[in-house]
Design a protein that fits this description.
With 199 residues, the protein is an alpha+beta fold. Helix content is 38%, strand content 13%. Pfam families: RVT_1.
Length: 199
């Protein structure tokens, strides 16, 4: 942390009052600050050899040889800026893995089956809080559900000001349609740039 910012982080224990020397993740802007730092340090590699989202970092390559080259470049950059990786949270040379609640592989991006099962087994929401929670959970996988906003319209109507929560047949149909869609969620795949793209 910058010397002038340390005085903004005091905490009290029975041993005395202390300030942080390094930024802990619990501070309000720590995540955003860390992400900006990662983008600054790896700007030329992001979206090419690596992807970085806060403390998740993925090296991605098309071939095994490219992967070794990309890893060497990544490790050199980590060493240059004196950054360390957690040895318990790393895997090398894998063709698929979990990232931010999704399964990423050569096939594409899939919803983690455990997360799909949790959403499929949810009971219909009854309160405003439960409706908001359900919509928030579904929004996380919005890219996988066609016409999600239109499908959820009856649920959104329940959240308007001065509207009494009344679970209607339209609400139940929307809820069931989303759960049915999750029985066989699609896989998001990259566009094949070898052919023509028609817009």
């Amino acid at each position: 942390m910058a010397e002038e910012d340390k005085s903004k982080t005091p905490f009290v224990t029975h041993w005395g009052t202390f300030v942080y020397d390094v930024m802990p993740f619990g501070l309000k802007n720590a995540g955003a600050t860390y992400q900006r730092a990662m983008v600054t340090l790896f700007h030329d590699m992001i979206h090419h050899e690596i992807e970085v989202y806060v403390d998740d970092m993925i090296a991605k390559s098309r071939t095994a040889q490219d992967h070794l080259t990309d890893l060497c470049k990544l490790f050199q950059r980590l060493k240059k800026y004196q950054l360390r990786l957690n040895p318990n949270k790393r895997a090398f040379g894998v063709t698929s893995g979990k990232l931010l609640g999704f399964i990423v592989s050569g096939r594409g991006i899939e919803i983690d089956p455990a997360k799909v099962q949790a959403k499929r087994s949810m009971p219909a929401p009854k309160t405003e809080k439960e409706i908001r929670s359900f919509l928030g959970r579904i929004n996380y996988i919005a890219h996988f559900i066609a016409q999600l906003t239109a499908t959820c319209e009856p649920l959104f109507k329940l959240l308007r000001k001065d509207v009494k929560i009344k679970w209607t047949e339209d609400c139940q149909r929307a809820f069931d349609k989303i759960k049915e869609y999750l029985l066989n969620p699609p896989i998001l795949v990259p566009v094949d740039t070898g052919g023509k793209i028609i817009f």
